[in-house]
Design brief:
Layout lengths: L3 E10 L2 E11 L4 E5 L6 H8 L4 E9 L2 E2 L5 H6 L2 E4 L11 H8 L8 H10 L16 H13 L5 E5 L7 H16 L4 E4 L3 H7 L2 E6 L2 E7 H6 L1 H7 L18 H11 L1
Parallel strand pairs: 3-8, 3-9, 6-7, 7-8
Antiparallel strand pairs: 1-2, 1-4, 4-5, 9-10
The structure holds adenosine-5'-triphosphate and magnesium ion (MG).
The site of magnesium ion has 4 residues, from helix 1.
Length: 261
């Protein structure tokens, strides 16, 4: 069963059509990456999942449920969490308060989940009482992801999680994305750092001008000449030299098996 699917989605803002029939899907256990030039409609495609768009056609499916045009708060309650490109933390609240805010729709005891989040993001432990706005870019991104993960989502949507980060933090964020995925959460991620993103992705979609241009496995897209010319700074990247995942760790395979039952 597919976790999330955009089926021929057409729409935009007001009268302006930005997405001209976008289709993509995320299966259980997958990391799926969306790549494309600025203004291609990548963020807009993500917003379409949250009923934030004027849809002219197509459908958005979560598991087997049609969630087209469902308002954002309901989509969140259904288990889709989204970390937007900007404005994804409360800068004046402490790290801990940000994480608690992430659990705002939970009525149960979420203290165990808070512990999990600190385990996923160890650098946040000693910053827990610090205003989130004072953290480094990489750590702020960890807070934003941690906040989203408080709801133990069925799927996590990340819009350019590595944007503006130094290479060191970028590497850390990609590692964390993999860790989150290996612990069982499927991920749909928009990224500009195509090489690193495709390196950890099961599959990727190239969007251009609000349309699907190419889709394939992360490995094949990395080796694709057109992709290399457009996004990897020219020249194709031999697949074996890429950072593509070597083996599927056990937890990942298990998560996959579980969600297929
Ligand atoms: N709230 C909005 N109202 C009107 N037009 C918008 C809005 N948000 C985005 N657009 C327009 O929609 C188009 C696609 O924007 P979108 O943000 O989806 O692109 P993107 O692929 O995410 O680009 P980037 O790589 O710069 O993040 C652009 O032409 C943009 O100007
Ligand atoms: Mg964007």
């Amino acid at each position: 069963m597919t976790v999330l699917e955009l089926d021929n989605v057409t729409g935009g803002y007001g009268e302006t059509e930005i997405l001209h029939g976008i289709s993509l899907k995320v299966d259980p256990g997958e990391i799926v990456v969306i790549i494309g030039p600025n203004g291609a409609g990548k963020s807009t495609a993500m917003k379409s999942v949250f009923g934030l768009l004027n849809l002219h056609g197509g459908r958005v499916m979560l598991d087997d449920e049609d969630i087209t045009n469902t308002p954002p708060e309901k989509v969140v309650r259904k288990g889709v969490c989204y970390v937007p490109q900007t404005g994804n933390i409360f800068p004046n609240l402490s790290v801990h308060e940000n994480l608690e805010m992430g659990a705002y729709v939970r009525r149960d005891d979420f203290s165990g989940r808070l512990d999990d989040i600190y385990q996923i993001f160890p650098p946040l432990v000693e910053k827990r009482n610090q205003p989130a706005g004072t953290l480094s870019g990489g750590q702020r991104q960890m807070v934003a992801m941690g906040k989203a993960l408080m709801l133990e989502p069925k799927i996590l949507l990340l819009d350019e999680p590595s944007a503006g980060l130094s290479p060191k933090y970028r590497g850390e964020i990609f590692k964390v994305v993999r860790d989150i995925n290996e612990a069982g959460t499927p991920i749909l991620m928009v990224e500009q750092n195509a090489k690193q993103a495709l390196g950890i992705a099961d599959r990727g979609y190239i969007l251009v001008d609000g349309q699907n241009r190419l889709d394939d496995t992360g490995k094949k897209l990395l080796a694709n000449k057109e992709v290399a010319e457009m996004f990897l700074g020219g020249g194709s990247v031999p697949a074996k030299k890429t950072a593509a995942r070597k083996t599927k760790p056990k937890a990942r395979a298990k998560a996959r098996g579980k969600s297929k039952q």
